[in-house]
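I am sending you the entry underneath: sequence plus fold tokens. Let me know what the token row says about the fold:
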Amino acid sequence: MDSFQKSEDIHARVAAEINGISISDVTKAQRRDAKAVNFGLIYGVSPYGLSANTEMSVIEASEYIKKYFDLHPGIKKYMKEIVAYAQQHGYVETLFGRRREIPELQSGIMAVRNAAQRAAINMPIQGTAADMLKLAMVEIAKYLPKISPKSKLLLQVHDELVLEVPKKDAKKVGKLVKTAMENVYKLDAPIIANAAAGPSWGTTVGIKI
């Protein structure tokens, strides 16, 4: 949490912790490995899976994951508790109460059960993020016609929102979108959004708000 509140590079922070070095000494390869773990754990990555996505051996990947959980026991605790909850109740839910039923947890096939456990771990996290983005879209749709009548909210791509905006309105629409995304729901960790504009999605550059 301290790292998020300081706006540190979370992947570099984890790499530094695992390797026992300062953040400034973290290499690109070390950061890449830490990123694979940070994102992979959401999906219940195994040592085999981590090894396949990095240059680590299976043994090295297993040791890396163990070190990670030793340093952050709260994450391991969450994973165990959410799976136990899902097994008991048959579902998990987001911070806003949206449920996902997971009957596959009772499957007689181990591979199916394992996949269901990974879904139980992942859904409250990514589902809550999705809920927050939808709420931000509601706020944006409410105020966009007043700020820039010719602007249109086109689509959502993962954690991004794509809008079509007159060039002269780019900055004020960017401010609206950034404000909505960052403040739609307050968490202990700050939510940081960045705005970018350009003639096409692939040629956007950051704009200062």
